[in-house]
Amino acid sequence: MKLIFLGAPGSGKGTQAEYVSAKMNIPPISTGNMLREAVKNGTDAGLSAKAYMDRGDLVPDEVVIGIIKDRVAQEDCKDGFILDGFPRTVEQAQALEDMGIKIDLAVEIAVPDDRICERMGGRRVCDKCGASYHVDYKPTKVDGKCDSCDGNAVQRADDVPETVLSRLKTYHEKTAPLLDFYGKLGKLKTVEGQIEIEDTKRLTFEAIGC
Ligand code: ADP
Ligand code: ZN
User: Is 36 known to be catalytic?
Assistant: First the structure.
């Protein structure tokens, strides 16, 4: 099964991608996590991505497409994968098609902008494995410590209010057209993001049929 998760920054798509990954035993592929890792390690891709990410802009298509191409070619992707945060532009979706990758389903996690802004301040991410948390909705067991590794659950530099607004704008301009793209292919399912993560999880599993 090859799945795509679509949704605004902070919609909870990464969290749902992690749940579905665990349930279906296919890897979650988050371009955001991979880019943050690249920045941390100071690789070429990381160096060229950093300024865009800090501003809340999209990293150029060719950088991200290159990263995805390498990643989906790895052994653990042979039975499928879950793309979280890719594609984010019509050009990226087209690149997937050009790679001959046939997507089974695109799942949109729909959350209104005002709720996104409310939630963002509480969002945390593990600085080591990338697992996602929220201080109210998905707290870590031990304050500030990741549940699944010995990393720290920290706030992302781009989760400050000004950057969140510009990321939301970018989402509506560049990524929302993908809803139409996959809708026209008959491959789109929309899940309304709920207050409780467990409720969204149930609806997401229903939409995928897993
Ligand atoms: P969120 O979904 O909360 O915006 P991500 O972790 O998915 O966060 O992405 C963080 C940043 O990484 C984005 O703001 C963007 O700069 C960059 N990025 C991630 N995925 C892509 C992509 N597919 N294309 C371009 N830039 C990307
Ligand atoms: Zn971790």
Answer: no
